[in-house]
């Protein structure tokens, strides 16, 4: 039976070539069921979620990695995020009337894409992803090549019920045999069909592709949808808005109501909550 909602690293023995595989089913459907996404948007969001999990696997610290894109085309916002402990969330905003193309470039139009790394301790980092290719996978390969100087091969697929991805990387310090291996495995990965990556488990996929190589698999890790929103984080966002604006909203509406964009959790704050937030006590 095919694995569901799992991430797994692997290496090619005695080389500087590494890889990772991911397949999402229930976590993917949990996320895309939050809105009536058209097929092209749903698939692109699925590819983004798979990519965020694969890229988060390259981090050496606790925190989150998010892939974000904004544009002036039919797709206005795209975001996929994965934490170090493999919790994912994502969303897309779009103009349904304008969806008549299916490539990332056409859907976004004029806009930008970035990878944001937010460690639990330390400085936040953001890197711009070049948008010189039609597919998300090729754009991210470009990012690793230019920003990280790491040769990368990325395969991403999504359908109505699953999304999946395969990442291969040749690390700095590679020897000539590593370069020969890299060319072989990169070519083999390019033969992977959507139905194989979406439906088969990792061991089957990797055996089909790389049975002539010595591949060492690490323990698979479960992946799940979980939103990181909370009442405390929402209050922090209100504090960032500022005291005057919060009291203006209270004056106009009687309470401040906020909905999470990712999971649709609803938070309501009255004057008592806002007094405590800004004044540290409740006014009588």
Task: Explain this structure.
The protein folds into two domains: 6-225, 3-Layer(bab) Sandwich (Hsp33 domain), CATH 3.55.30; 231-279, HSP33 redox switch-like (CBS domain Like), CATH 3.90.1280.10. Helix content is 36%, strand content 30%. The strands form three sheets. Strands 1, 2, 8, 9, 10 and 11 form a six-stranded antiparallel beta sheet that branches. The relative contact order is 0.16. The protein has 284 residues and is of the alpha+beta class.
Provide a short characterization of the protein structure.
36% of the residues lie in helices and 30% in strands. The chain is an alpha+beta fold. It folds into two domains: 6-225, Hsp33 domain (3-Layer(bab) Sandwich); 231-279, CBS domain Like (Alpha-Beta Complex).
Strand-helix topology:
Elements (H helix, E strand, L loop, with lengths): L5 E7 L4 E8 L1 H7 L6 H18 L6 E9 L3 E9 L3 E8 L9 H5 L2 E9 L5 E4 L7 H13 L2 E8 L4 E8 L5 H14 L4 H6 L2 H9 L4 E3 L3 E2 L1 E2 L5 H11 L1 H11 L2 E4 L6 E4 L1 H9 L5
Parallel strand pairs: 5-12
Antiparallel strand pairs: 1-2, 1-10, 1-11, 2-9, 3-4, 3-6, 4-5, 6-7, 8-9, 13-14
Helix content range of the residues, please?
25-40%
What series of H and E elements makes up the topology? EEHHEEEHEEHEEHHHEEEHHEEH
CATH superfamily of the largest domain: Hsp33 domain
Query: Poorly predicted ranges (pLDDT <50, ≥5 residues)?
Result: none
Query: Rg from C-alpha positions?
Result: 21 Å
Largest β-sheet summary = 6 strands, antiparallel
Spell out the key features of this protein:
CBS domain Like; 284 residues; 14 strands; alpha+beta; Hsp33 domain; 2 domains
């Amino acid at each position: 039976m095919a694995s569901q909602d799992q991430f797994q690293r692997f290496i090619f023995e005695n080389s500087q070539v590494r890889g990772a595989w991911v397949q999402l089913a229930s976590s993917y459907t949990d996320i895309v069921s939050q809105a009536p996404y058209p097929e092209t948007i749903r698939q692109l969001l699925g590819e983004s979620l798979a990519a965020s999990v694969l890229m988060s696997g390259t981090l050496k610290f606790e925190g989150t990695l998010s892939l974000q894109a904004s544009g002036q085309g039919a797709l206005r916002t795209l975001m996929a995020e994965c934490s170090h402990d493999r919790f994912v969330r994502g969303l897309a905003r779009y103009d349904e009337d304008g969806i008549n193309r299916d490539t990332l470039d056409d859907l976004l139009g004029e806009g930008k894409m970035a990878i944001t790394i937010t460690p639990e301790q330390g400085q936040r980092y953001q890197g711009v992803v070049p948008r010189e290719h039609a597919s998300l996978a090729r754009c991210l390969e470009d990012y690793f090549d230019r920003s990280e100087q790491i040769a990368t091969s990325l395969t991403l697929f999504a359908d109505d019920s699953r999304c999946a991805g395969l990442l291969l990387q040749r690390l700095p310090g590679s020897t000539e045999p590593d370069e020969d291996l890299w060319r072989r495995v990169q070519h083999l990965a390019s033969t992977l069909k959507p139905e194989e990556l979406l439906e088969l488990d990792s061991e089957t996929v990797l055996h089909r592709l790389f049975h002539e190589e010595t591949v060492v698999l690490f323990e698979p890790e479960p992946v799940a949808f979980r939103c990181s929103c909370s009442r405390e984080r929402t209050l922090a966002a209100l504090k960032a808005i500022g005291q005057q604006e919060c009291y203006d909203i209270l004056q106009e509406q009687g309470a401040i109501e906020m909905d999470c964009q990712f999971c649709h959790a609803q938070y309501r704050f009255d004057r008592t909550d806002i007094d405590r937030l800004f004044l540290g006590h409740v006014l009588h």
